[in-house]
Amino acid sequence: MGRKMKDLEDDGSPLVLFTIKLRKLREDAGNPTLEQLKAKSGYEQPRLSELFNAKKIPTEDIVRDVVTALDGDADQWLERLERLRADEQKFRAAVDLSAESPAAQITRLQEENKRLRELLERPATVVAQAVTAQELANQRIQAALKLEHRARDLLSKAQEEYQLLHERIPEIETQAAAIVADGANTAFHLELQGRTRHSQIVDEAHRRAGAIMKTAEREARDMLQRAEDRAKEHRANSYASINKVLKNVDRLRAEAEQDRHQASARCASLEMRAKIEIERLVRQAQQQLERVGSLAQAQDLELLLLDFNISGSHTSTRGRHARRSSSGVPVLPAKAQSAADLIVQPPRPDWKGWALPQQGQ
């Protein structure tokens, strides 16, 4: 809600009545503040204050924009504004006529002369017109006498005031000269004091600036020294960390190389053991095939060993692995399935798979 405005003094002026109605429209719209009306209408607060305090007859633009911002009928208010201008002019003229100023009295006399001429132009009731004219003339004479008396009084007062002023001119000139001299003296002393104070301020500023510069330089040197110390410490720590990391890298590289050699040796050992086991199994299979009379298939097993390049290449297959079993009972390995899984390629392109001979062939 907006701040309560001062009440307008209703002097019968059309402008005051117009403004009272405009305030009523603002209250019906929620009594927005001048700041809110400024945002809606685009007019500054001084102009809005003049509008709502009946300072002068407003323009059409501000009435239209403010009434629109207050959700009023702009056309209706523009018509009221047009009537306000005519009514206000008549009101001001009536106020001027009722005043006691010489100009107002002269205006009234002119109006009376106008009415008198209008009466003389009419032929009816000449006596009444003459009486009226006489009365008006008497009134004009009385008014003229009053005006003359007031004019003489005013002229006498003006002459007296002029005489008093003329008599006081030397005194005023003396006082003015004294004031000027005193002012010049005061200005000189103030200037002197100002220069002295200026010098003191400049000296104090130089002294403080020098102290601040020394303090700043000392703090800067301390900060630089601390920064160098921290840099050295960080550099030493960095070198130590890098050396430690490099040592760990060398150690890990050596361990990796050792693990690689161990893995290679183990891989070679496993490969050798696999070949030995394959050759042992194949020899046992050959013995079984020879016992049942399948010499061709036993020969195929020999070719298989040649294809895998393991036939006779391992001394461990010689000796007891190379000897055939003399018990007559087939000796099958305990892990024949896992050993057979090691054979992942066919022995030759035309190989059709393993086929055990039937009993009695």
Description:
The chain is mainly alpha-helical and 361 residues long. Among the domains are: 14-144, 434 Repressor (Amino-terminal Domain) (Orthogonal Bundle); 268-340. The chain is 75% helix and 0% strand. The chain contains 9 helices and no strands. Helix 4 (60-69) crosses helix 5 (74-98), helix 6 (102-121) crosses helix 7 and helix 7 packs across helix 8 (295-307). It is elongated, with a radius of gyration of 66 Å. The two termini are 122 Å apart. Residues 315-344 have low confidence and may be disordered.
Summarize the structure.
The chain is mainly alpha-helical and 361 residues long. It has helices at 14-28, 34-41, 45-52, 60-69, 74-98, 102-121, 126-292, 295-307, 336-340.
| Uncertain residue ranges | 315-344
Query: What is the C-alpha radius of gyration, as a whole number of Å?
Result: 66 Å
Got a strand count?
Answer: 0
Classified by CATH, the class of the domain at 14-144 is Mainly Alpha
Tell me the β content.
under 5%
**Count of helical regions:** 9
CATH topology of the domain at 14-144: 434 Repressor (Amino-terminal Domain)
The CATH architecture category of the domain at 14-144 equals Orthogonal Bundle
Shape: elongated
Distance between the amino and carboxyl termini: 122 Å
Mean pLDDT: 78
Main sheet makeup:
none
Order of helices and strands: HHHHHHHHH
Structural class: mainly alpha
Helix content: over 70%
CATH superfamily of the domain at 14-144: lambda repressor-like DNA-binding domains
